[in-house]
């Protein structure tokens, strides 16, 4: 199906939702404040403390298996010093997306969605490190938000999306292919429309739009390729929405693998089986992280 037509349909669907969640005002102000190279930790902390929900989620993330502090961090100012201000932007964005859909119910089980998303984030960070990608946090956050459109479909097109989920149980097609066939658009276009409404940076919009076809990415094809492979790895392991899709893949045949090998020829020597064991070792951490994030604040 024509990409432009699918994007037009996505924009119509997203635009028709009157109660679409928004990024909280405090989070937006935090992101703007962090654009100032001379901003102080105290100023950022004071602003963040005015949103207790965002602050609580950031503290949970920071004390999670992802960051592994030597001891529990209980002070927000200490947390900001530990992270460095450049990473606060990423956490503010992540927690805002989580908060936007917290407590919602839809066709997808929300914990399974976030387990997949955080799994892709963690694997993206691992792959990024292996190829020498400079911004590991950007890879991590890109993985977390890549399937943003799925939450929209699950919540705001619940019945049609339920039909898609039923369809892939009996047809050997990918979820994104079934969406295009039955809905006339996919979670990629839906997610892109939402990301633009929320004024996400272009690199993140690019990943959301092209994580299934990284060769079409225009801002950062390498980042899209990282997320694409991470998505595939998680889908064939336990972080796969409960095994909804019929997915198998040969790494050597994947477009993303070609893109990453051109960036880092050393990948040719990577022990893929050992890498998969690393992923398996990360699965319990992901499940623990998601359980922690969605426990009562």
Set down the secondary structure blueprint.
Elements: H1 3-15, H2 25-33, H3 41-48, H4 52-62, H5 76-83, H6 85-101, H7 110-131, H8 136-145, H9 148-156, H10 158-170, H11 175-183, H12 187-197, H13 202-210, H14 221-235, H15 255-263, H16 272-293
Helix pairs in contact: 1-12, 4-6, 6-8, 7-8, 7-14, 7-16, 8-14, 9-10, 9-12, 10-11, 12-13, 13-14, 14-15
Q: Could you please describe the fold and organization of this structure?
A:
The chain is mostly helical. The chain has a domain at 3-20 and 106-293: Hypothetical protein af1432, CATH 1.10.3210.10. It is 66% helix and 0% strand. It has 16 helices and no strands. Helix 6 (85-101) packs parallel to helix 8. The longest helix has 22 residues, at 110-131. It is globular, with a radius of gyration of 19 Å. The model has no long low-confidence stretch (mean pLDDT 85).
In short:
This protein has 297 residues and is mainly α. The protein has 16 helices and no strands.
């Amino acid at each position: 199906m024509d990409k432009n037509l699918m994007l037009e349909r996505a924009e119509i669907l997203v635009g028709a939702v009157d109660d679409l969640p928004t990024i909280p005002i405090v989070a937006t102000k935090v992101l703007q404040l962090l654009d100032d190279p001379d901003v102080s930790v105290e100023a950022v902390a004071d602003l963040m403390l005015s949103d207790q929900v965002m602050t609580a989620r950031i503290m949970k993330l920071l004390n999670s298996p992802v960051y592994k502090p030597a001891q529990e961090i209980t002070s927000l100012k200490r947390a900001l010093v530990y992270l460095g201000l450049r990473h606060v932007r990423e956490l503010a964005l992540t927690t805002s997306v989580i908060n936007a859909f917290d407590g919602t119910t839809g066709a997808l089980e929300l914990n399974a969605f976030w387990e997949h998303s955080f799994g892709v984030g963690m694997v993206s960070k691992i792959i990024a490190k292996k190829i020498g990608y400079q911004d590991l946090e950007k890879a991590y956050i890109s993985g977390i938000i890549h399937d943003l459109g799925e939450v929209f479909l699950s919540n705001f097109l619940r019945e049609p999306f339920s039909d898609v989920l039923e369809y892939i149980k009996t047809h050997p097609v990918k979820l994104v292919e079934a969406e295009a066939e039955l809905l006339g658009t996919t979670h990629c276009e839906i997610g892109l429309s939402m990301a633009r409404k929320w004024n996400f940076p272009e690199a993140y919009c690019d990943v959301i739009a092209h994580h299934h076809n990284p060769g079409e990415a225009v801002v950062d094809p390498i980042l899209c390729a990282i997320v694409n492979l991470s998505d595939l790895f998680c889908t064939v392991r336990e972080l796969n929405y409960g095994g909804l899709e019929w997915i198998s893949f040969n790494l050597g045949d994947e477009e993303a693998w070609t893109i990453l090998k051109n960036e880092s020829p050393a990948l040719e020597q990577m022990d893929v089986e050992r890498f998969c064991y690393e992923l398996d070792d990360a699965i319990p951490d992901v499940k623990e992280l998601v359980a922690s994030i969605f426990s009562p604040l």
